[in-house]
Every structure is written in structure tokens, then in C-alpha cells.
Amino acid sequence: MTNTSPSGSNPAEAEAFLAAHPEIDAFDIILHDSNGIGRGKIIRRHELLSIYNNGRHMPISILGLDICGEDVHETGLIWDEGDGDRRAWPIPGTLVPLAGTTPARGEVFMSLYNLDGSQMTSDPRHALQRQVDALASEGLYPAGAFELEFFLLENERDAKGKMVPARDVLDGRRNSKTDVYSVDQLHGMLPLFNDIYAGAKAAGIKAETLISEFAPGQYELTLHYRENVMQAADDLMRLKRLVRMHARLHGRTACFMAKPNEDYAGSGMHFHVSLQDANGKNTFIEAIEGQWNDQIRHAIGGLRTTMGESMLVFAPHANSWRRFASQSYAPVSPTWGVNNRSVALRIPAGDIRARRVEHRPAGVDANPYLVAATVLAGIRHGLRHKIDPGPEVTGNGYDAKTDIVMPDDWRSAIKLATASDFLKEALGEDMHRTFTAVKMAEYARVMRTVSEVDFDLYLHTV
Q1: So what's the pLDDT on residue 328?
Q2: Do residues 86 and 114 touch, judged by C-beta distance below 8 A?
Q3: What residues contact residue 44 under an 8 Å CB cut-off, 6+ apart?
Q4: Cβ–Cβ under 8 Å, residues 330 and 265
Q5: pLDDT tens digits, residue range 221-257?
Q6: Which of 131, 138, 146, 431 has a beta carbon 3.0–4.6 Å from 236's, enabling a disulfide?
Q7: Burial of residue 340, with CB atoms counted within 10 A of its CB: 0-12 exposed, 13-18 middle, 19 or more buried
Q8: Spatial CA neighbour of 366 closest among 35, 17, 27
């Protein structure tokens, strides 16, 4: 065993934080499983320094849980390993205060390692780090940012079991209209959003533009572009926790399902990504505006050709697949284009110095560490094999035809992902096995559950 932190964490960080925050009594220590769910413990103030000095034992099974927090034996992380302990270590730079908590708390992200200090490779952070390191060995450094779409809802559903858009925090006013881009609609939720922005600032997250999105009760928060993609994924995970926490404090529910209402658009998690060279120059920038260089073309080519095998990462749940509907701003066909929101891979208009690809298939219910790892692996695949992306789609991308095999539903996505050599390389064999086993277990759970839809369709008809 080793007491040298394999994550690079330093006790001096904890000591300085404790000195600067005498008001904090407890800390959430959090690592993220294959579904992106925060698992861990709440520790007391006096325990923090020990974690930085020695790590914290956690069972290996913590990474083999399904969406309900139950063991999935097929991951090989339960009895095959005797459910033995591994050690979680703090991630440098992730120790932050949680603004708005009473009594005051902080949180720190963790990552799981074997007792000898090697990576426990069913940890999603390690999957992303593998791809970041692989690109670095080729002199390329990914930068990016995620967009966060979500719904604010009432805590109780209506008489028909439908979700109800949240009343305004300011005065209790209810709005059932879409009101996309309405600034007045935002004003009613400002007390809640002001708390979210304050929490983000305290945590070192640069939360930026807020908009009213394309459904009643739907909103979007954008995040500042990061030169470190791991930090971009950390920002997204932390912002989701902040939104959920402050919504609850205001008596509302923050919903990160991909599709909570069949009548309106679902929630995406668009990932903006570019590659920098060793000097910090964006390699996607073309010499003549609009004449795309090989770097961005081959990157898009790789993302297109691997999209079918990757869809389970981007749409990991049964509900995820309800989001994909024609003209609902959730493209699932492997298309690309410029300044076109009907395609899956969009080159945004604007300053050429910010040239990037906006990857649009992922839902907000996806795990950003695995999304980023898979996207980077797709880019690497395109660059390595110099893949031509084919012609740009203009007009309605939903009408575009493709010869790339794409899954039609959750089940076919699971089958395609399980057999995919590309996805095994993208996630690593252990993470791939864990992720696909968890998805198969969740699929079985959904299929054996008799839902209200069954009764509505069949009770009095068959």
C-alpha cells in the first residue's frame, strides 16, 4: 500500500482551506459512478486532513451500481472481487465551499485507486484521463465546455401524473407557455438563480448565460470554456448538484431527465470541444474563413463514423430515447453542418478564433466524463485515419440520409455498444464492461416493470 496520493492531492490544500473556512463543519466526499451519480460520504471537519494524508477506503462495488444504487454482479466488481476496499483520493483543486448550506459544508471530488496506487479503471474520471493523455502524447490538448439544460418543476405531479412547471419563486406566478428566450420569464426565478450563481462563484465555476429554453419550465445555463476538458466535466457535475440543491431549498424540483414531458423538447448536454497545440493555439482554426482545415474535418469524420457505436454513452437510459424526435432539436443522425441546429455536429458561427465543434447528441442525463472520453476518442479516430466527414448538411438535417449504422432504440444501442471495439478503446475494457453491464441490468429492470402505459393501452382492449 502507498500513502502517497496517486491523484496528486496535497495535504497543504486541505490545511489552507480549513484555515480559510473556520465556519465549515462537514464535507461531502464524492466520486461518480458510471451513471454520473455522486456516491460517497459526509465527513466531519476533523476527518478532512486524514483523507488528504491517507485517502479513504471505499468498497469496489461503489462503481458497480445501477441507477437505483443496487449491485450489478455482471460488472465483476462485486463478489468476483470479494467486494474488497479500494482507496479514494481527493482530486486537486476540487475542494470548495457549498454556498447556502446551514450549517456550512464543503465538498471535494474523489477518484478511486487500487491499494497499490494504480488506477481503478472502472472510475469514469480515469476513462477520460486516458483519452486526454493519449492526445497529449500526440501534442494535442482538448479544451471545451458543456451546456446544462434542465427543467424546474413543482414537487407534486398533476392529477394525470404529469410534471408541472414550477411556479415562479418570486411571486408564485405560474406560466404554462413555452416562452423561449423570454427575459421576463427568467425574472420570476431570479431569487433561485441568484443563489445558483453565488454557489457557482464560491465553487470557482464560471456559470455564464441563462436563457428560458424551448419548453415550459425549461432553462439553460452555459459554462465558461475551459482549456482543461476534465475541469469542464467537473464544472458540469458540480453545477448540476448546485442547481438541484438550491431548487430544493426553494421548494422546487430540478429535473435532469432527458425527456420529462412528451409534448415538449427534452434537455440536452451539448459539448463544445476544440484541440490546442503545445503553444495554446486552436488547431481547428482555418487559414481562410469557411475553408475548413483537415484537423477539424477529420475530427468531424471520426465523430460521425463512431456515433452509432457511441450512442449508449450519449443516451444511456430508457427515457433518453424519448428525446429523439424530428424537429425537437435533438438530432440523432450523424450529420454535420455550419450554424445549423438540426445537425448532430455543428460548427457554430462567430469569431474564427473560437472555432470548435458543438457535439449535440448527448442528453443532460448522460455522464459528462464518459461523453467527453468518447468524443475525444472519436476525434482521435478521425485524425488517425484521416476520415473525410462527407458533404456538409444544409437545410433540415433531420431529412439527411446516412449509411452509418445507428441504433433505433435503447436495446439496440446496448447491443451495439457491447460489441463495439471502438467503445472498448474509448472507455477502456474495465469501464466498458462496467458500463454496458449496468445498462443491461437497467434494461431488464425496465422491461419487467408493468407501467401505467401498459394499463392505459391494454387493460380494457386486449
Answers
A1: 60
A2: yes
A3: 25, 26
A4: yes
A5: 999 999 999 999 999 999 999 999 999 999 999 999 9
A6: 146
A7: buried
A8: 35
For residue 191, whether the previous peptide bond is cis, meaning omega lies within 30 degrees of 0, is no
- CA nearest neighbour of 150 among 36, 272, 268: 268
User: Contact, 13 vs 60, CB < 8 A?
Assistant: no
Q: Which numeric CATH code is attached to 133-454?
A: 3.30.590.10
Residues 6+ away with beta carbon under 8 Å from 411: 443
Spell out the SS3 assignment of the chain.
CCCCCCCCCCHHHHHHHHHHCCCCCEEEEEEECCCCCEEEEEEEHHHHHHHHHHCEEEEHHHHCECCCCCECHHHCCCHHHCCCEEEEEECCCCCEEECCCCCCEEEEEEEEECCCCCECCCCHHHHHHHHHHHHHCCCCEEEEEEEEEEEEECCCCCCCCCCCECCCCCCCCCCCCCCCCCHHHHHCCHHHHHHHHHHHHHCCCCEEEEEECCCCCEEEEEECCECCHHHHHHHHHHHHHHHHHHHHHCCCEEECCCCCCCCCCCCECCEEEEEECCCCCECCCCCCCCCCCHHHHHHHHHHHHCHHHHHHHHCCCCHHHHCCCCCCCCCCCCCEEECCCCCCEEECCCCHHHCCEEECCCECCCCHHHHHHHHHHHHHHHHHHCCCCCCCCCCCHHHCCCCCCCCCCHHHHHHHHHCCHHHHHHHCHHHHHHHHHHHHHHHHHHHCCCCHHHHHHHCCCC
The pLDDT value recorded for residue 329 is 64
- CB within 8 A of 280, min separation 6: which ones? 227
Q: By C-alpha distance, which of 61, 103, 149 is closest to 328?
A: 149
Residues in the chain with pLDDT values less than 70: 1-2, 177, 179-181, 325-331
pLDDT at 1: 46
Place of cell 479513504: 56
Q: What are the boundaries of each domain within the chain? A: 11-120, 133-454
Q: Residue 267 and residue 285: Cα distance in Å, rounded?
A: 30
- What is the CATH class of 11-120? alpha beta
In sign, the C-alpha dihedral spanning 273, 274, 275, 278 is negative
CB crowding 355-383: b at 16 or more within 10 Å, else e: bbbbbbbbbbbbbbbbbbbbbbbbbbbbb
